[in-house]
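Notes, p. 3: input format for complexes.
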Amino acid sequence: WSTWGYSVSEFRVYDQPLPEPQPQLPLVPAPVSLERAEGAFVLADDIGIEASGDALDAAEYLAELMRPSTGLALPIAAPGEAGERAIEISVAPGNAPAGHEAEGYTLDVTAAGIELAADTPAGALNGVQTLRQLLPAWVESDQVTDIEWSVPFVAISDYPRFEHRGLMVDTARSFYTVDEVKRLIDSAAPLKLNRLHLHLTDDQGWRIAMDVPAENPSGIDYDALTTISGATAMTYSPTGTLMGTELGHTGFYTKEDYREIVEYAGENGMTVIPEIDLPGHTNAALHAIPQLNSAGSNPKPLPGETTAPHQGTGQVGISTFDADNEHTYTFITEVLRQVAELTPGEYLHIGGDEAHTTSHEDYVEMVDFATATVADLGKTVVGWNEYASTNLPQDAAVVQLWTGNGASTRDAVDTRGAKVILSPANKTYMPQKQDSRQPLGGTWACGGPCTLENAYNWNPATQIPGVAEESILGVEAAFWGEFIRGVDQAQFYTFPRLLATAEAGWTPQDGKVLAEFIDRVGQLGPRMTAQGVNFFPTSTVDWR
Ligand code: TNX
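Output follows (544 residues plus TNX):
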Protein backbone atom coordinates (compact mmCIF):
# COMPACT_ATOMS: atom_id res chain seq x y z
CA TRP A 1 0.00 0.00 0.00
CA SER A 2 2.79 2.38 0.78
CA THR A 3 3.76 2.63 -2.87
CA TRP A 4 0.38 4.22 -3.55
CA GLY A 5 1.24 7.09 -1.21
CA TYR A 6 -1.51 6.64 1.36
CA SER A 7 -2.38 4.16 4.08
CA VAL A 8 -5.49 2.01 4.22
CA SER A 9 -6.99 4.19 6.94
CA GLU A 10 -6.73 7.29 4.74
CA PHE A 11 -8.46 5.54 1.89
CA ARG A 12 -12.13 6.34 2.10
CA VAL A 13 -14.12 5.40 -0.92
CA TYR A 14 -17.28 7.35 -0.33
CA ASP A 15 -16.21 10.77 0.82
CA GLN A 16 -13.45 11.35 -1.67
CA PRO A 17 -14.14 14.20 -4.03
CA LEU A 18 -15.06 13.05 -7.50
CA PRO A 19 -12.08 12.89 -9.80
CA GLU A 20 -11.42 16.09 -11.69
CA PRO A 21 -12.83 15.79 -15.19
CA GLN A 22 -10.05 14.78 -17.51
CA PRO A 23 -8.44 17.98 -18.67
CA GLN A 24 -9.13 18.69 -22.31
CA LEU A 25 -6.45 18.77 -24.91
CA PRO A 26 -6.02 22.22 -26.43
CA LEU A 27 -7.52 21.36 -29.80
CA VAL A 28 -9.44 23.97 -31.79
CA PRO A 29 -11.38 23.02 -33.79
CA ALA A 30 -12.39 20.03 -31.68
CA PRO A 31 -11.92 16.76 -33.57
CA VAL A 32 -14.83 14.51 -34.47
CA SER A 33 -13.54 11.63 -32.37
CA LEU A 34 -10.76 11.54 -29.81
CA GLU A 35 -9.68 8.81 -27.42
CA ARG A 36 -6.94 9.33 -24.88
CA ALA A 37 -4.71 6.90 -23.08
CA GLU A 38 -2.42 7.46 -20.12
CA GLY A 39 1.08 8.52 -21.10
CA ALA A 40 2.89 10.36 -23.83
CA PHE A 41 5.29 9.76 -26.67
CA VAL A 42 8.56 11.55 -25.92
CA LEU A 43 10.53 12.85 -28.84
CA ALA A 44 14.28 12.26 -28.88
CA ASP A 45 17.29 12.89 -31.14
CA ASP A 46 16.73 9.73 -33.13
CA ILE A 47 13.25 10.69 -34.32
CA GLY A 48 12.71 10.99 -38.05
CA ILE A 49 9.69 11.64 -40.24
CA GLU A 50 8.67 9.03 -42.78
CA ALA A 51 6.62 10.15 -45.77
CA SER A 52 4.80 7.68 -47.96
CA GLY A 53 2.61 8.40 -50.96
CA ASP A 54 1.99 12.09 -51.53
CA ALA A 55 2.98 13.02 -47.96
CA LEU A 56 6.20 14.93 -48.58
CA ASP A 57 4.66 18.41 -48.33
CA ALA A 58 3.00 17.58 -45.01
CA ALA A 59 6.24 16.01 -43.72
CA GLU A 60 8.25 19.09 -44.67
CA TYR A 61 5.66 21.42 -43.18
CA LEU A 62 5.86 19.53 -39.89
CA ALA A 63 9.66 19.40 -39.92
CA GLU A 64 9.97 23.12 -40.64
CA LEU A 65 7.50 23.86 -37.88
CA MET A 66 9.27 21.68 -35.30
CA ARG A 67 12.97 22.13 -36.05
CA PRO A 68 13.50 25.72 -34.78
CA SER A 69 11.92 25.12 -31.37
CA THR A 70 12.86 21.49 -30.71
CA GLY A 71 16.37 21.74 -32.13
CA LEU A 72 15.84 18.21 -33.49
CA ALA A 73 17.19 17.32 -36.92
CA LEU A 74 13.97 15.52 -37.89
CA PRO A 75 15.28 14.04 -41.12
CA ILE A 76 12.66 13.09 -43.70
CA ALA A 77 12.97 9.52 -44.89
CA ALA A 78 11.21 6.95 -47.02
CA PRO A 79 8.81 4.48 -45.34
CA GLY A 80 10.61 2.18 -42.91
CA GLU A 81 13.85 4.14 -43.03
CA ALA A 82 13.57 6.57 -40.16
CA GLY A 83 14.36 4.02 -37.47
CA GLU A 84 12.33 2.35 -34.76
CA ARG A 85 10.43 5.32 -33.36
CA ALA A 86 9.24 7.59 -36.12
CA ILE A 87 6.55 10.03 -37.12
CA GLU A 88 4.96 8.24 -40.07
CA ILE A 89 2.82 10.21 -42.49
CA SER A 90 1.01 8.24 -45.15
CA VAL A 91 -1.18 9.50 -47.98
CA ALA A 92 -2.99 6.64 -49.69
CA PRO A 93 -6.52 5.63 -50.70
CA GLY A 94 -8.48 4.09 -47.85
CA ASN A 95 -6.59 5.94 -45.10
CA ALA A 96 -9.16 8.60 -44.20
CA PRO A 97 -12.43 7.94 -42.40
CA ALA A 98 -14.83 6.61 -45.07
CA GLY A 99 -16.80 9.31 -46.86
CA HIS A 100 -14.31 11.99 -45.82
CA GLU A 101 -11.51 11.34 -48.27
CA ALA A 102 -10.99 14.98 -49.30
CA GLU A 103 -9.81 16.30 -45.94
CA GLY A 104 -10.15 13.61 -43.29
CA TYR A 105 -7.30 11.94 -41.42
CA THR A 106 -6.48 9.66 -38.52
CA LEU A 107 -3.77 10.34 -35.97
CA ASP A 108 -2.50 7.69 -33.57
CA VAL A 109 0.08 8.42 -30.92
CA THR A 110 1.35 5.41 -28.97
CA ALA A 111 4.59 4.33 -27.32
CA ALA A 112 5.61 2.90 -30.69
CA GLY A 113 5.41 6.17 -32.55
CA ILE A 114 3.15 8.66 -34.27
CA GLU A 115 1.05 7.61 -37.26
CA LEU A 116 -0.80 10.12 -39.39
CA ALA A 117 -2.84 8.78 -42.29
CA ALA A 118 -4.93 10.53 -44.93
CA ASP A 119 -6.15 10.11 -48.48
CA THR A 120 -4.95 13.49 -49.70
CA PRO A 121 -2.19 16.02 -48.97
CA ALA A 122 -4.91 18.35 -47.61
CA GLY A 123 -6.01 15.69 -45.14
CA ALA A 124 -2.42 15.07 -44.10
CA LEU A 125 -1.90 18.79 -43.48
CA ASN A 126 -5.03 18.86 -41.31
CA GLY A 127 -3.51 16.06 -39.26
CA VAL A 128 -0.25 17.97 -38.98
CA GLN A 129 -2.15 20.97 -37.58
CA THR A 130 -3.71 18.69 -34.96
CA LEU A 131 -0.32 17.25 -34.04
CA ARG A 132 0.97 20.81 -33.79
CA GLN A 133 -1.64 21.64 -31.12
CA LEU A 134 -0.78 18.41 -29.25
CA LEU A 135 2.87 19.42 -28.98
CA PRO A 136 3.89 21.80 -26.18
CA ALA A 137 3.02 25.46 -26.85
CA TRP A 138 6.70 26.26 -27.29
CA VAL A 139 6.58 24.53 -30.66
CA GLU A 140 5.47 27.95 -31.93
CA SER A 141 8.71 29.54 -30.79
CA ASP A 142 11.49 30.26 -33.25
CA GLN A 143 14.17 29.57 -30.62
CA VAL A 144 15.42 26.23 -29.35
CA THR A 145 13.54 25.53 -26.15
CA ASP A 146 14.92 23.01 -23.68
CA ILE A 147 11.83 21.15 -22.48
CA GLU A 148 10.55 17.63 -22.75
CA TRP A 149 8.98 17.39 -26.19
CA SER A 150 6.11 15.00 -25.85
CA VAL A 151 2.75 14.21 -27.40
CA PRO A 152 -0.05 12.65 -25.36
CA PHE A 153 -1.24 9.19 -26.40
CA VAL A 154 -4.34 9.68 -28.54
CA ALA A 155 -6.37 8.00 -31.23
CA ILE A 156 -8.05 10.66 -33.37
CA SER A 157 -10.36 10.22 -36.33
CA ASP A 158 -11.31 13.53 -37.83
CA TYR A 159 -12.79 15.39 -40.77
CA PRO A 160 -14.51 18.74 -41.42
CA ARG A 161 -18.23 19.36 -41.23
CA PHE A 162 -18.04 21.85 -44.13
CA GLU A 163 -15.88 22.11 -47.21
CA HIS A 164 -15.43 25.89 -46.96
CA ARG A 165 -13.84 27.41 -43.83
CA GLY A 166 -12.81 30.90 -44.70
CA LEU A 167 -11.33 34.17 -43.61
CA MET A 168 -12.03 37.31 -45.63
CA VAL A 169 -9.53 40.14 -45.44
CA ASP A 170 -10.43 43.62 -46.67
CA THR A 171 -7.26 44.86 -48.35
CA ALA A 172 -9.13 47.72 -50.05
CA ARG A 173 -9.99 50.02 -47.16
CA SER A 174 -6.57 49.60 -45.60
CA PHE A 175 -3.83 47.67 -47.34
CA TYR A 176 -1.89 44.68 -46.03
CA THR A 177 1.56 43.99 -47.49
CA VAL A 178 2.48 40.53 -48.73
CA ASP A 179 4.33 39.87 -45.47
CA GLU A 180 1.32 40.98 -43.46
CA VAL A 181 -0.96 38.66 -45.42
CA LYS A 182 1.50 35.84 -44.75
CA ARG A 183 1.30 36.57 -41.02
CA LEU A 184 -2.49 36.37 -41.23
CA ILE A 185 -2.20 33.05 -43.06
CA ASP A 186 0.22 31.81 -40.38
CA SER A 187 -2.33 32.55 -37.69
CA ALA A 188 -5.33 31.11 -39.57
CA ALA A 189 -3.81 27.87 -40.90
CA PRO A 190 -3.43 26.15 -37.50
CA LEU A 191 -7.23 26.40 -37.17
CA LYS A 192 -7.64 24.33 -40.35
CA LEU A 193 -9.16 27.26 -42.22
CA ASN A 194 -8.82 26.47 -45.91
CA ARG A 195 -10.01 29.58 -47.79
CA LEU A 196 -8.53 33.06 -47.89
CA HIS A 197 -10.97 35.50 -49.47
CA LEU A 198 -9.20 38.70 -50.49
CA HIS A 199 -11.47 41.73 -50.90
CA LEU A 200 -9.24 43.48 -53.43
CA THR A 201 -11.28 46.45 -54.64
CA ASP A 202 -13.69 48.90 -53.11
CA ASP A 203 -14.58 52.57 -53.09
CA GLN A 204 -11.38 53.49 -51.30
CA GLY A 205 -8.74 51.55 -53.20
CA TRP A 206 -7.83 49.08 -55.95
CA ARG A 207 -5.17 46.60 -54.80
CA ILE A 208 -4.39 44.31 -57.72
CA ALA A 209 -2.27 45.32 -60.72
CA MET A 210 -3.85 44.78 -64.13
CA ASP A 211 -1.93 44.73 -67.41
CA VAL A 212 -2.95 46.79 -70.41
CA PRO A 213 -4.03 44.10 -72.90
CA ALA A 214 -2.43 43.96 -76.36
CA GLU A 215 -5.83 44.54 -77.93
CA ASN A 216 -7.30 47.57 -76.23
CA PRO A 217 -9.73 49.37 -78.53
CA SER A 218 -11.44 51.24 -75.70
CA GLY A 219 -8.11 52.82 -74.73
CA ILE A 220 -8.66 52.04 -71.03
CA ASP A 221 -5.46 52.60 -69.06
CA TYR A 222 -5.53 49.59 -66.73
CA ASP A 223 -2.26 50.72 -65.14
CA ALA A 224 -4.12 53.68 -63.67
CA LEU A 225 -6.13 51.34 -61.44
CA THR A 226 -3.08 50.91 -59.24
CA THR A 227 -1.00 54.02 -60.04
CA ILE A 228 -3.99 56.12 -58.98
CA SER A 229 -6.22 53.93 -56.82
CA GLY A 230 -3.42 51.82 -55.37
CA ALA A 231 -2.28 55.00 -53.64
CA THR A 232 -5.52 55.75 -51.78
CA ALA A 233 -7.12 54.30 -48.67
CA MET A 234 -9.86 54.69 -46.12
CA THR A 235 -9.16 57.79 -44.11
CA TYR A 236 -12.08 59.76 -42.78
CA SER A 237 -15.70 59.14 -41.97
CA PRO A 238 -18.24 61.01 -44.11
CA THR A 239 -18.28 63.72 -41.44
CA GLY A 240 -14.53 64.14 -41.63
CA THR A 241 -13.34 62.38 -38.47
CA LEU A 242 -10.41 60.00 -38.64
CA MET A 243 -11.47 56.34 -38.90
CA GLY A 244 -9.24 54.15 -36.76
CA THR A 245 -6.12 55.30 -35.02
CA GLU A 246 -4.16 56.29 -38.11
CA LEU A 247 -4.56 56.91 -41.80
CA GLY A 248 -5.50 53.91 -43.90
CA HIS A 249 -2.55 52.07 -45.41
CA THR A 250 -2.13 52.31 -49.17
CA GLY A 251 -0.48 50.01 -51.68
CA PHE A 252 -1.26 47.28 -54.16
CA TYR A 253 -0.13 43.81 -55.18
CA THR A 254 1.82 43.33 -58.38
CA LYS A 255 0.88 40.13 -60.16
CA GLU A 256 4.11 38.67 -58.81
CA ASP A 257 3.13 39.63 -55.25
CA TYR A 258 -0.26 38.11 -55.74
CA ARG A 259 1.16 34.82 -57.01
CA GLU A 260 3.42 34.74 -53.97
CA ILE A 261 0.37 35.05 -51.70
CA VAL A 262 -1.47 32.32 -53.61
CA GLU A 263 1.52 30.01 -53.31
CA TYR A 264 2.09 30.68 -49.61
CA ALA A 265 -1.59 30.21 -48.89
CA GLY A 266 -1.48 26.92 -50.82
CA GLU A 267 1.45 25.65 -48.76
CA ASN A 268 -0.70 26.37 -45.71
CA GLY A 269 -3.71 24.53 -47.07
CA MET A 270 -5.60 27.68 -48.06
CA THR A 271 -7.11 28.48 -51.44
CA VAL A 272 -7.27 32.16 -52.33
CA ILE A 273 -10.63 33.53 -53.50
CA PRO A 274 -10.17 36.95 -55.10
CA GLU A 275 -13.03 39.47 -54.98
CA ILE A 276 -13.55 42.24 -57.49
CA ASP A 277 -16.54 44.08 -56.05
CA LEU A 278 -19.07 45.39 -58.59
CA PRO A 279 -21.21 47.18 -59.74
CA GLY A 280 -21.25 49.12 -56.45
CA HIS A 281 -18.22 49.70 -54.24
CA THR A 282 -16.43 50.81 -57.42
CA ASN A 283 -15.36 54.33 -56.61
CA ALA A 284 -11.67 53.46 -56.94
CA ALA A 285 -12.16 52.14 -60.47
CA LEU A 286 -14.32 55.12 -61.44
CA HIS A 287 -11.69 57.43 -60.04
CA ALA A 288 -8.92 55.90 -62.15
CA ILE A 289 -10.64 55.12 -65.46
CA PRO A 290 -12.32 58.08 -67.17
CA GLN A 291 -14.16 55.88 -69.69
CA LEU A 292 -16.23 54.34 -66.87
CA ASN A 293 -17.61 57.71 -65.82
CA SER A 294 -20.77 58.35 -67.77
CA ALA A 295 -24.24 59.64 -67.08
CA GLY A 296 -25.42 56.60 -65.10
CA SER A 297 -22.33 56.13 -62.96
CA ASN A 298 -21.91 57.41 -59.48
CA PRO A 299 -20.71 58.65 -57.04
CA LYS A 300 -22.08 62.11 -56.80
CA PRO A 301 -20.02 64.57 -54.80
CA LEU A 302 -20.63 64.24 -51.09
CA PRO A 303 -21.96 67.25 -49.16
CA GLY A 304 -19.27 69.90 -48.98
CA GLU A 305 -17.35 68.53 -51.93
CA THR A 306 -17.18 69.94 -55.38
CA THR A 307 -15.51 67.14 -57.28
CA ALA A 308 -16.46 63.56 -57.91
CA PRO A 309 -15.50 60.81 -57.64
CA HIS A 310 -14.70 61.12 -54.01
CA GLN A 311 -12.19 58.88 -52.25
CA GLY A 312 -11.49 57.74 -48.78
CA THR A 313 -14.57 58.01 -46.60
CA GLY A 314 -16.47 55.19 -45.00
CA GLN A 315 -19.66 55.97 -46.85
CA VAL A 316 -21.04 52.82 -48.48
CA GLY A 317 -23.49 52.42 -51.33
CA ILE A 318 -22.48 55.61 -53.13
CA SER A 319 -20.88 54.25 -56.28
CA THR A 320 -21.99 52.25 -59.29
CA PHE A 321 -20.93 51.37 -62.78
CA ASP A 322 -23.18 52.56 -65.62
CA ALA A 323 -25.20 49.72 -67.17
CA ASP A 324 -25.65 51.75 -70.37
CA ASN A 325 -21.95 52.30 -70.96
CA GLU A 326 -20.23 49.76 -73.23
CA HIS A 327 -16.89 50.36 -71.47
CA THR A 328 -18.41 48.91 -68.30
CA TYR A 329 -18.62 45.50 -69.97
CA THR A 330 -15.22 45.75 -71.65
CA PHE A 331 -13.71 46.58 -68.28
CA ILE A 332 -15.50 43.79 -66.38
CA THR A 333 -14.52 41.23 -69.02
CA GLU A 334 -10.86 42.22 -69.04
CA VAL A 335 -10.44 42.46 -65.28
CA LEU A 336 -12.18 39.16 -64.57
CA ARG A 337 -10.11 37.49 -67.31
CA GLN A 338 -6.86 38.65 -65.75
CA VAL A 339 -7.94 37.78 -62.23
CA ALA A 340 -9.03 34.30 -63.36
CA GLU A 341 -5.62 33.85 -64.91
CA LEU A 342 -4.02 34.57 -61.53
CA THR A 343 -6.32 32.13 -59.77
CA PRO A 344 -5.61 28.39 -59.60
CA GLY A 345 -8.60 27.96 -57.26
CA GLU A 346 -12.14 27.22 -58.35
CA TYR A 347 -13.82 30.43 -57.18
CA LEU A 348 -14.07 34.07 -58.30
CA HIS A 349 -16.02 36.53 -56.15
CA ILE A 350 -17.74 39.45 -57.84
CA GLY A 351 -19.12 41.24 -54.77
CA GLY A 352 -22.54 42.56 -55.74
CA ASP A 353 -23.28 44.13 -52.35
CA GLU A 354 -24.80 47.46 -51.48
CA ALA A 355 -25.31 48.87 -54.98
CA HIS A 356 -27.70 51.41 -53.53
CA THR A 357 -27.46 53.97 -56.32
CA THR A 358 -28.15 51.42 -59.07
CA SER A 359 -31.67 50.63 -60.29
CA HIS A 360 -32.57 46.97 -59.84
CA GLU A 361 -32.84 46.50 -63.59
CA ASP A 362 -29.37 47.94 -64.19
CA TYR A 363 -27.97 45.95 -61.29
CA VAL A 364 -29.29 42.69 -62.71
CA GLU A 365 -27.96 43.51 -66.16
CA MET A 366 -24.42 44.13 -64.90
CA VAL A 367 -24.35 41.25 -62.42
CA ASP A 368 -25.75 38.79 -64.98
CA PHE A 369 -22.99 39.86 -67.32
CA ALA A 370 -20.34 39.34 -64.64
CA THR A 371 -21.63 35.94 -63.47
CA ALA A 372 -21.83 34.68 -67.07
CA THR A 373 -18.29 35.95 -67.67
CA VAL A 374 -16.99 34.04 -64.64
CA ALA A 375 -18.76 30.89 -65.84
CA ASP A 376 -17.17 31.33 -69.30
CA LEU A 377 -13.79 31.58 -67.60
CA GLY A 378 -14.40 28.13 -66.11
CA LYS A 379 -14.75 29.35 -62.53
CA THR A 380 -17.53 29.13 -59.97
CA VAL A 381 -18.92 32.55 -59.14
CA VAL A 382 -19.39 33.81 -55.59
CA GLY A 383 -21.25 36.97 -54.57
CA TRP A 384 -22.76 38.63 -51.52
CA ASN A 385 -26.39 37.79 -50.78
CA GLU A 386 -27.78 40.78 -52.71
CA TYR A 387 -26.79 39.02 -55.93
CA ALA A 388 -29.11 36.12 -55.15
CA SER A 389 -31.81 38.26 -56.82
CA THR A 390 -30.15 37.96 -60.26
CA ASN A 391 -30.19 35.16 -62.84
CA LEU A 392 -27.40 33.07 -61.35
CA PRO A 393 -25.84 30.31 -63.45
CA GLN A 394 -27.53 26.98 -62.78
CA ASP A 395 -25.76 24.75 -60.24
CA ALA A 396 -22.64 26.87 -60.48
CA ALA A 397 -23.02 29.79 -58.11
CA VAL A 398 -22.30 30.43 -54.45
CA VAL A 399 -24.16 33.00 -52.35
CA GLN A 400 -22.32 34.49 -49.38
CA LEU A 401 -24.92 35.55 -46.84
CA TRP A 402 -24.03 38.49 -44.61
CA THR A 403 -27.33 40.18 -43.89
CA GLY A 404 -31.10 39.86 -44.12
CA ASN A 405 -33.49 36.98 -43.53
CA GLY A 406 -32.06 34.80 -46.28
CA ALA A 407 -35.25 34.65 -48.38
CA SER A 408 -33.56 35.43 -51.71
CA THR A 409 -30.66 33.14 -50.82
CA ARG A 410 -33.13 30.32 -50.17
CA ASP A 411 -34.76 31.02 -53.56
CA ALA A 412 -31.36 30.82 -55.24
CA VAL A 413 -30.74 27.48 -53.52
CA ASP A 414 -34.18 26.14 -54.53
CA THR A 415 -34.37 27.41 -58.09
CA ARG A 416 -30.73 27.72 -59.18
CA GLY A 417 -29.03 25.03 -57.14
CA ALA A 418 -26.82 27.62 -55.47
CA LYS A 419 -24.59 26.77 -52.50
CA VAL A 420 -24.23 29.05 -49.50
CA ILE A 421 -21.35 30.47 -47.52
CA LEU A 422 -22.53 31.81 -44.17
CA SER A 423 -21.01 35.05 -42.92
CA PRO A 424 -23.88 36.41 -40.83
CA ALA A 425 -22.69 39.75 -39.51
CA ASN A 426 -23.78 39.02 -35.95
CA LYS A 427 -21.75 35.80 -35.85
CA THR A 428 -18.75 36.33 -38.07
CA TYR A 429 -18.01 40.07 -38.46
CA MET A 430 -14.64 40.47 -36.85
CA PRO A 431 -14.22 44.26 -36.71
CA GLN A 432 -17.21 44.55 -34.40
CA LYS A 433 -16.30 45.20 -30.75
CA GLN A 434 -15.94 42.10 -28.55
CA ASP A 435 -16.36 44.21 -25.47
CA SER A 436 -16.09 47.83 -24.46
CA ARG A 437 -12.34 47.51 -23.90
CA GLN A 438 -11.94 47.43 -27.66
CA PRO A 439 -11.71 51.05 -28.70
CA LEU A 440 -12.40 50.64 -32.42
CA GLY A 441 -15.01 48.85 -34.43
CA GLY A 442 -18.77 48.88 -34.69
CA THR A 443 -21.56 47.52 -32.53
CA TRP A 444 -24.34 47.44 -35.11
CA ALA A 445 -24.17 43.76 -35.99
CA CYS A 446 -25.03 42.42 -32.52
CA GLY A 447 -26.81 45.46 -31.14
CA GLY A 448 -23.95 45.67 -28.61
CA PRO A 449 -20.71 43.76 -28.24
CA CYS A 450 -20.20 40.76 -30.54
CA THR A 451 -18.87 38.41 -27.87
CA LEU A 452 -16.84 35.24 -28.22
CA GLU A 453 -19.81 33.27 -26.88
CA ASN A 454 -22.05 34.83 -29.49
CA ALA A 455 -19.60 33.93 -32.24
CA TYR A 456 -19.67 30.31 -30.99
CA ASN A 457 -23.33 29.76 -30.30
CA TRP A 458 -24.96 29.14 -33.64
CA ASN A 459 -25.75 26.34 -36.00
CA PRO A 460 -25.01 26.87 -39.71
CA ALA A 461 -27.64 24.25 -40.61
CA THR A 462 -30.46 26.29 -39.06
CA GLN A 463 -29.24 29.79 -39.86
CA ILE A 464 -31.46 30.24 -42.92
CA PRO A 465 -34.87 28.62 -42.47
CA GLY A 466 -35.36 26.15 -45.30
CA VAL A 467 -31.69 25.90 -46.28
CA ALA A 468 -30.38 22.55 -45.08
CA GLU A 469 -26.87 21.49 -44.24
CA GLU A 470 -26.30 19.94 -47.70
CA SER A 471 -26.64 23.35 -49.34
CA ILE A 472 -24.17 25.02 -47.00
CA LEU A 473 -20.70 25.13 -48.50
CA GLY A 474 -19.34 26.52 -45.27
CA VAL A 475 -18.68 29.49 -43.04
CA GLU A 476 -16.44 32.52 -43.30
CA ALA A 477 -15.26 35.23 -40.93
CA ALA A 478 -15.37 38.65 -42.59
CA PHE A 479 -12.72 41.10 -41.58
CA TRP A 480 -13.73 44.52 -42.90
CA GLY A 481 -11.16 47.26 -42.85
CA GLU A 482 -12.74 50.64 -42.18
CA PHE A 483 -11.30 50.99 -38.67
CA ILE A 484 -8.41 48.57 -38.67
CA ARG A 485 -4.79 49.32 -39.60
CA GLY A 486 -2.19 46.57 -39.93
CA VAL A 487 -1.85 43.01 -38.68
CA ASP A 488 -1.50 43.71 -34.97
CA GLN A 489 -4.87 45.44 -34.91
CA ALA A 490 -6.30 42.83 -37.30
CA GLN A 491 -5.40 40.03 -34.90
CA PHE A 492 -6.57 42.00 -31.88
CA TYR A 493 -10.05 42.03 -33.40
CA THR A 494 -10.03 38.66 -35.13
CA PHE A 495 -8.69 36.52 -32.29
CA PRO A 496 -9.99 34.66 -30.45
CA ARG A 497 -13.34 34.92 -32.28
CA LEU A 498 -11.83 33.36 -35.39
CA LEU A 499 -11.44 30.18 -33.32
CA ALA A 500 -15.22 30.10 -32.91
CA THR A 501 -15.78 30.42 -36.66
CA ALA A 502 -13.18 27.73 -37.33
CA GLU A 503 -15.01 25.36 -34.98
CA ALA A 504 -18.38 26.24 -36.56
CA GLY A 505 -16.91 25.15 -39.89
CA TRP A 506 -15.25 21.97 -38.65
CA THR A 507 -16.80 20.38 -35.60
CA PRO A 508 -20.16 18.54 -35.74
CA GLN A 509 -22.91 20.51 -33.99
CA ASP A 510 -23.34 17.89 -31.25
CA GLY A 511 -19.60 18.01 -30.55
CA LYS A 512 -19.75 21.71 -29.74
CA VAL A 513 -19.94 22.58 -26.04
CA LEU A 514 -19.44 26.23 -25.18
CA ALA A 515 -17.79 25.73 -21.78
CA GLU A 516 -15.34 23.23 -23.23
CA PHE A 517 -14.55 25.56 -26.12
CA ILE A 518 -13.87 28.47 -23.76
CA ASP A 519 -11.52 26.20 -21.76
CA ARG A 520 -9.66 25.10 -24.89
CA VAL A 521 -9.34 28.71 -26.07
CA GLY A 522 -7.75 29.60 -22.72
CA GLN A 523 -5.26 26.79 -23.16
CA LEU A 524 -4.31 28.13 -26.58
CA GLY A 525 -3.25 31.49 -25.10
CA PRO A 526 0.42 30.60 -24.53
CA ARG A 527 0.57 29.06 -27.97
CA MET A 528 -0.78 32.20 -29.66
CA THR A 529 1.60 34.28 -27.57
CA ALA A 530 4.58 32.16 -28.60
CA GLN A 531 3.48 32.44 -32.22
CA GLY A 532 3.15 36.22 -31.96
CA VAL A 533 -0.62 36.34 -32.50
CA ASN A 534 -1.92 39.54 -30.93
CA PHE A 535 -5.19 38.13 -29.59
CA PHE A 536 -7.72 40.06 -27.52
CA PRO A 537 -7.76 38.85 -23.88
CA THR A 538 -11.48 38.11 -23.77
CA SER A 539 -12.64 38.59 -20.18
CA THR A 540 -14.71 35.39 -19.97
CA VAL A 541 -11.70 33.21 -20.83
CA ASP A 542 -9.35 31.83 -18.20
CA TRP A 543 -6.14 32.55 -20.12
CA ARG A 544 -3.25 30.24 -19.20
C1 TNX B 1 -21.04 46.02 -45.21
S1 TNX B 1 -20.78 43.10 -45.73
C2 TNX B 1 -20.23 45.80 -46.31
C3 TNX B 1 -18.84 46.30 -46.30
C4 TNX B 1 -18.53 47.02 -45.02
C5 TNX B 1 -19.14 46.27 -43.86
C6 TNX B 1 -18.77 46.78 -42.50
C7 TNX B 1 -20.75 43.67 -47.13
C8 TNX B 1 -20.92 42.71 -48.19
N1 TNX B 1 -20.56 44.98 -47.34
O1 TNX B 1 -18.62 47.12 -47.40
O2 TNX B 1 -17.14 47.08 -44.88
O3 TNX B 1 -20.54 46.32 -43.99
O4 TNX B 1 -19.01 48.12 -42.33
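The pocket of TNX is lined by residues 316, 353-354, 384, 402, 480, 482 (CB under 6 Å).
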